[in-house]
Design a protein that fits this description.
The complex is a heterodimer. By secondary structure, chain A is mainly alpha-helical. Chain A has helices spanning 16-24, 28-49, 57-78, 82-86, 88-105, 126-144, 152-170, 175-192, 196-216, 219-229, 240-251, 263-266, 278-311, 315-339, 357-375; strands at residues 107-109, 112-117, 123-124. By secondary structure, chain B is α+β, with helices and mostly antiparallel strands. The chains are: A mainly alpha, B alpha+beta. The interface between A and B is large, with 51 and 41 residues.
C-alpha cells in the first residue's frame, strides 16, 4: 500500500458509466445498518421526549440535523476522499482554532464549556466534529510517514498530533471525548504498524500519568469516577444517574416494557435520558432482546467499517476507516457500558441514537467517508 | 508494513470490537435477565407511592341514638416547600400566624426534604380566625396549603369524660402489643374509657391511595384507591338526659354517680367528678395541660366510679343483713333493743348520732340504720361469714365493667388482715366491717351491682357501658350483653326482708326526704368515716321498689351524711329517668 499523493479524478467529473459503477460499489450493508440506526435513533428520541412540553421539538430538531447531515454527507461521498487529505494541515489547524474558540467564547452547560452558539441554527459542539477531523488528519499523517516505526520515538510525532487537540478538549473539560481521542490514536497506530511493545509502553506511561490527571479533573468529574466504583457513595447526587439507569435497563427484563411504556423514562427517573443515557430507555422499553438487536446492528456496521479498511485502495483510506471504526466502537462500548454500570459516566453519546445534532452529523459524515473509501476501492480502478 | 500484516492487525482489531460488544451483551444478560426481577421491583418502588387515608373514627351515641362523640372537620395548615418563593420571609410570617416558632417550622421542613413535593404538616386543628387570616394574605404565602382532616369531637366536653375516654398517640408498648392488628406508629388510639376498650371497632380501617409519581415526587396518576372504612358506631346504654341530670346533681363536688339497669347491667349514667375535657387530647395534648391534669390534687384523671374504693358505711349493712338472714340468725320481725351504744367486752361503742332507738324490729333497724343492731348481729354472724356474703355480692372483685383499670376493692377478714397487716383480727374489726367501716373499700359500681342483685332477685350482673356495635351503615355488628358473673343465693324470705327494709329506708327511715310522688324508691344511705375531713356520703337505691327498673348509686367525697348529700342526687337522677318533674323540695333533708 502506498500513499496516494496525486489527486485522483473527482467522481463528479467521471464519465457516466464510471459514476454508475461507483454507485454500484456503495456498501449496501453499511448504508442499510446506518439507516436502521438513524431511524431507530429518531424513534427513541421521540420516545424519550414525547412527554415534554413540546412533544415533537426534539425529534424535529434531530430530523433537521439528519437532513443537513445527509445532504452534506452526499457531497462527502461524491467527492473523492483523497481531496480531503490534500489540505490536511489546514484542516488540522482549523480544528485547533475551533477548539480554542470554544474555550474563549463557548457556552457553558453543566459545568463545561462545549458549545459555540450559532444564532438561530442553535449551537454547535466542535469537539464532536473534531473527532472526525482528527481521524482524517492522523490517517494522512500516518500515510505520509509510513514507517516502519522502530521505537517509541518514532511514534512521538503522532502522539503530538493527537495530544494538542486532546489537551484543548480536556480543558473544556470533556474527559470522555479526550478518551475517545486516545482510543482513535491506539486503534490507528496499531493498524498503522506500530510495534505492540511501543504501544504497550505508551499505555503504561498513560497509566503513570493518570494520578497527576486526577488533580487536574474538576470536582464533579472526580465524583463521577468515584461513584462509578461505588454508586452508593452518593445515591442522590453523582451516583443517582448510574443507579436509576441500571434500574431502568434491568427492569426491562427479556422483552421490555414496550415502546413508550418505560416508567423510568416517562417519570424522568433517569437524567439525560434522551442524550447520553438513551440506552437506558432502550433497555427498559425493548428489553434484553431489543438491546441485543441494537448491538447486532452496530456489529454489522463495525464489520463493514473494518471491511472497508481491508479493501481501501490506499493507506490513508485504510487508516481513516480504522480510525472511524475505533471511534464508533469506543463510543458504543463506553456509552452502553455506562448505562449498565461497567463504565464511568463520561458524557459520550451513543452514535446515531443519542439526541444531539453535532454528534449525529459527525457520525453521518464518518459513514459518508467510509462509503467513499469503500466505493473507491482497488477493483474499480481496472 | 505489508498488506498481510495490516489485514492480520485488522482481524485483531475486529476481534477486540466483537469482544467489547460481547462484554456488553453478557452484562445486559446479567442486569436484565439474571437480576431483572430485582431491578423491576426497584423500578416499581421508584414510581409507586402508597399514602394512607385516615379512616373517620366510629361515632359514640347514647341508647336513643343521640351523638356523644363525633368527628369534626378541622383545618390543618401544611406547607409545600418547593412552592415557596422567599422562604426567609415566608417562614417567619407563617410562624407568626400559627403562633409557632420559626425554628420549629424549619426543622419540620428539613425532616421532609426527601420528598420535596409532599406537603409538610405544620399544625392541626387551626382555629377559624387564623385560617381566615391566612386566606387573606394568600397571595403572599405561596406554598401554604389548608387541608381538612377529621378530629375527634366530644360534643359535651367533660360530660362522661372518664367513661368515654380520650385519644392519644399509640405508645411503644401498645404498638408492640397491637402491631399485628394493623396499628402503626403515629396512629391515634383510645387511651381511656370506651375509646380504649372498643378501639378496634371504633378505629375503622385506613384507606390507601396508590399513585404513580415522577422522579420529583409529583403525582402522575392515581392507580388505585382503597377507600377508608369508617369505624363502627358504638351504642352506649347511657341515657343522655339522665347522664346530664347526674352530672348536674353531683355538680362541683368530688364523687361519682352510677345508674344501671338492674336486670341487664347496662349502665345508663356514669359520672365521676372532677372530670377533664377529652377534647384537649384530640390533637395531641399540650404538655402544660397534661401536667396540670396529672398534678391536680383533686386527681381529675381517676374514675371515681371504678378506679377508687371507699368505705361504704351503712350501705354495707345489706351484706351483714343478708348473712344474718340467710344464716337464720334473724328475720324481719326479730326484736332488738338499741340503747344508743354497744358494749364490746367492756369497750363502749357509740352510735354516730348517739341516738337511742330503743325497741325496734330488724326491719326497722335497716330503715333507721341502727349501728347497735348491726354490731350485735355482726358479732353473731362473724367476720368470715360477713366476708363470704360480701364476696357473694361481688365485693372484693372487679365487676368486669367494660372500662380499663378497674380496681377490686377490699373485703377484710381475719386471714386478709393477717396477710396484709400481720395483725390479729379484733372484735372491733368485726363491728367496723359489719357497718362498712374500717378496712372495707368498695367502688361505686360494685355498690350498684350489689344493690342490683337485691333488686333483681340475686343475679350478679356484669355492668357494661356499651350495648351495641353498629356498622357505619347502621346494621348491628354485635350486641353487648355480658353474662352475669354469678348468683347470690338469696332465699325468698331474705329477699323479701331486704327489699322491705330498703323500701322502709325511704318511706319511714333515713331517706324520707327523697320520696318522689308517684315513684316508690328503695335504697340505703351510707355515711362513712374517712379518717380525715368530712365523711363519705353514699346512697344506693332502686326504683320502682316493686318492679326495679333502675339502680342509682351516688357517692360524694368528704361531704357529710349520705341522706343529706348523696340521696338527693339519686333522687334527681330518678326523676330524670322516670320523667317526673322535680317536686318542690319538701323541706331540708333529715340527716
Amino acid at each position: 500500500m502506498s500513499a496516494a499523493t496525486a489527486a485522483a479524478p473527482a467522481a463528479l467529473d467521471a464519465p457516466r458509466s464510471r459514476r454508475r459503477r461507483l454507485v454500484r460499489n456503495l456498501d449496501p450493508l453499511l448504508l442499510g445498518s446506518t439507516a436502521v440506526l438513524v431511524a431507530f435513533g429518531l424513534l427513541m428520541v421521540y420516545s424519550t421526549t414525547r412527554s415534554m412540553p413540546h412533544p415533537l421539538a426534539y425529534t424535529r430538531s434531530q430530523m433537521l440535523h439528519l437532513m443537513i447531515g445527509v445532504g452534506v454527507g452526499i457531497v462527502l461521498v461524491a467527492a473523492d476522499y483523497r481531496t480531503l487529505a490534500a489540505g490536511w494541515r489546514w484542516l488540522y489547524v482549523a480544528n485547533l482554532l475551533m477548539l480554542a474558540a470554544v474555550l474563549v467564547i463557548g457556552r457553558s452547560s453543566l459545568g463545561a464549556q462545549r458549545w459555540i452558539p450559532l444564532g438561530p441554527l442553535g449551537q454547535f459542539q466542535p469537539s464532536e466534529l473534531a473527532k472526525l477531523v482528527l481521524v482524517i488528519t492522523l490517517a494522512k499523517h500516518l500515510a505520509d510517514r509510513p514507517g516502519p516505526y522502530r521505537s517509541v520515538a518514532d511514534l512521538v510525532p503522532f502522539l503530538a498530533h493527537v495530544a494538542v487537540p486532546m489537551v484543548l478538549i480536556f480543558r473544556q473539560p470533556d474527559l470522555g471525548t479526550a478518551l475517545v481521542y486516545g482510543a482513535i490514536f491506539a486503534g490507528m497506530l496499531f493498524a498503522g504498524g506500530a510495534r505492540r511493545r511501543d504501544l504497550a509502553a505508551l499505555g503504561a506511561a498513560a497509566c503513570l500519568v493518570s494520578p497527576v490527571l486526577w488533580h487536574v479533573l474538576k470536582e464533579y468529574q472526580r465524583r463521577r469516577l468515584l461513584v462509578f466504583l461505588d454508586p452508593s457513595l452518593d445515591p442522590r447526587g453523582a451516583g443517582y444517574g448510574i443507579i436509576q439507569s441500571k434500574i431502568a435497563v434491568g427492569s426491562g427484563l427479556l422483552w421490555g416494557k414496550g415502546l413508550f411504556a418505560g416508567t423510568q423514562n416517562l417519570l424522568q427517573f433517569v437524567p439525560e435520558h434522551h442524550t447520553d443515557f438513551i440506552f437506558s430507555v432502550i433497555g427498559e422499553e425493548l428489553g434484553f432482546l431489543g438491546g441485543l438487536a441494537l448491538l447486532a446492528v452496530f456489529l454489522v456496521w463495525l464489520w463493514r467499517g473494518v471491511r472497508t479498511a481491508a479493501v481501501a485502495r490506499d493507506r490513508f483510506g485504510a487508516l481513516a476507516a480504522v480510525g472511524i471504526v475505533s471511534m464508533v466502537a469506543f463510543h458504543v462500548f463506553v456509552n452502553v457500558g455506562m448505562t449498565v454500570g461497567i463504565m464511568p459516566i463520561t458524557g459520550i453519546p451513543l452514535p446515531f441514537i443519542s439526541y444531539g445534532g453535532s454528534a449525529l452529523m459527525t457520525m453521518l459524515w464518518a459513514t459518508a467517508l467510509l462509503l467513499n473509501i469503500g466505493m473507491r476501492r482497488q477493483r474499480i480502478l481496472f | 508494513m505489508d498488506h498481510e500484516t495490516f489485514e492480520r492487525r485488522l482481524v485483531v482489531l475486529f476481534t477486540a470490537v466483537v469482544a467489547l460488544l460481547a462484554v456488553l451483551a453478557v452484562r445486559l444478560w446479567q442486569v436484565q435477565v439474571v437480576q431483572g426481577d430485582y431491578f423491576a421491583r426497584l423500578a416499581d418502588e421508584n414510581r409507586l407511592r402508597v399514602t394512607s387515608v385516615a379512616a373517620p373514627r366510629g361515632l359514640i351515641i347514647d341508647r336513643a341514638g343521640r351523638p356523644l362523640v363525633v368527628n369534626r372537620p378541622a383545618f390543618t395548615v401544611a406547607l409545600m416547600p418547593t412552592e415557596m418563593v422567599r422562604p426567609d420571609e415566608e417562614i417567619p410570617r407563617v410562624a407568626r400566624l400559627l403562633s409557632m416558632d420559626p425554628a420549629d417550622i424549619r426543622q419540620r421542613l428539613a425532616a421532609g426534604r426527601e420528598r420535596p413535593f409532599e406537603p409538610v404538616r405544620l399544625r392541626r386543628d387551626v382555629p377559624k380566625d387564623v385560617i381566615a387570616a391566612i386566606e387573606e394574605s394568600r397571595m403572599d404565602l405561596p406554598g401554604v396549603l389548608i387541608e381538612i382532616e377529621p378530629v375527634r369531637d366530644y360534643l359535651y366536653r367533660e360530660l362522661g369524660a372518664h367513661m368515654l375516654g380520650y385519644l392519644g398517640e399509640i405508645s411503644d408498648a401498645d404498638l408492640r402489643r397491637f402491631r399485628a392488628d394493623g396499628y402503626e406508629a403515629g396512629d391515634l388510639i383510645g387511651k381511656a374509657g370506651v375509646e380504649r376498650v372498643y378501639d378496634r371497632y371504633l378505629r375503622g380501617r385506613s384507606g390507601e391511595l396508590q399513585a404513580e409519581v415522577d422522579a420529583m415526587g409529583r403525582l402522575s396518576r392515581t392507580l388505585r384507591t382503597i377507600p377508608a372504612v369508617p369505624g363502627d358506631t358504638l351504642v352506649l346504654g347511657i341515657d343522655l338526659p339522665m347522664q346530664q341530670a347526674a352530672e348536674a346533681a353531683l355538680g362541683n363536688r368530688l364523687g361519682a354517680v352510677v345508674a344501671m339497669d338492674p336486670q341487664t347491667g347496662a349502665v345508663e349514667a356514669w359520672v365521676s367528678h372532677p372530670a377533664f375535657d377529652p377534647d384537649l387530647f384530640s390533637t395531641g395534648i399540650h404538655a402544660r395541660d397534661w401536667n396540670a391534669l396529672l398534678h391536680d390534687p383533686r386527681q381529675p384523671l381517676i374514675d371515681r366510679a371504678a378506679q377508687a374504693g371507699y368505705p361504704t358505711g351503712s350501705v354495707f349493712k345489706i351484706v351483714t343483713a343478708t348473712a344474718a338472714l340467710e344464716l337464720g340468725l334473724v328475720n324481719a320481725g326479730t326484736g332488738f333493743y338499741d340503747p344508743g351504744y354497744y358494749n364490746l367486752n367492756g369497750r363502749i361503742f357509740h352510735d354516730n348520732a348517739n341516738e337511742a332507738f330503743g325497741h325496734l324490729s330488724f326491719l326497722q333497724a335497716i330503715a333507721v340504720s341502727s349501728n347497735v343492731v348491726f354490731w350485735t348481729i355482726g358479732r353473731a354472724v362473724g367476720p368470715e361469714h360477713i366476708s363470704e356474703y360480701a364476696h357473694l355480692y361481688g365485693l372484693g372483685s372487679r365487676t368486669g365493667v367494660d372500662l380499663p383499670d378497674e380496681i377490686a376493692g377490699v373485703v377484710p377478714d381475719p386471714a386478709w388482715k393477717r396477710r396484709v397487716y400481720h395483725q390479729p383480727w379484733y372484735g372491733g374489726d368485726t363491728l367496723n366491717t359489719a357497718v362498712g367501716q374500717g378496712y372495707v373499700l368498695v367502688t361505686p359500681i360494685q355498690a350498684a351491682r350489689m344493690v342490683a342483685a337485691v333488686a333483681n332477685g340475686g343475679t350478679l350482673v356484669t355492668p357494661h357501658i356499651a350495648v351495641e356495635i353498629r356498622a357505619p351503615g347502621g346494621q348491628v355488628v354485635e350486641r353487648i350483653a355480658p353474662p352475669p358473673a354469678g348468683h347470690v343465693p338469696l332465699g325468698p324470705q331474705t329477699l323479701a326482708t331486704l327489699r322491705a327494709g330498703l323500701a322502709a329506708v325511704v318511706t319511714r327511715g333515713t331517706a324520707t326526704s327523697i320520696q318522689i310522688p308517684g315513684l316508690a324508691v328503695a335504697g340505703k344511705t351510707g355515711t362513712a368515716e374517712s379518717g380525715h375531713g368530712k365523711p363519705y356520703a353514699w346512697f344506693v337505691g332502686y326504683a320502682p321498689a316493686d318492679d326495679p327498673k333502675l339502680v342509682v348509686v351516688a357517692m360524694v367525697e368528704h361531704a357529710g351524711y349520705g341522706a343529706e348529700f348523696a340521696a338527693p342526687i339519686v333522687q334527681r337522677v330518678l326523676e330524670a329517668a322516670f320523667g317526673l318533674t322535680p317536686a318542690a323540695q319538701p323541706g331540708d333533708p333529715k340527716p
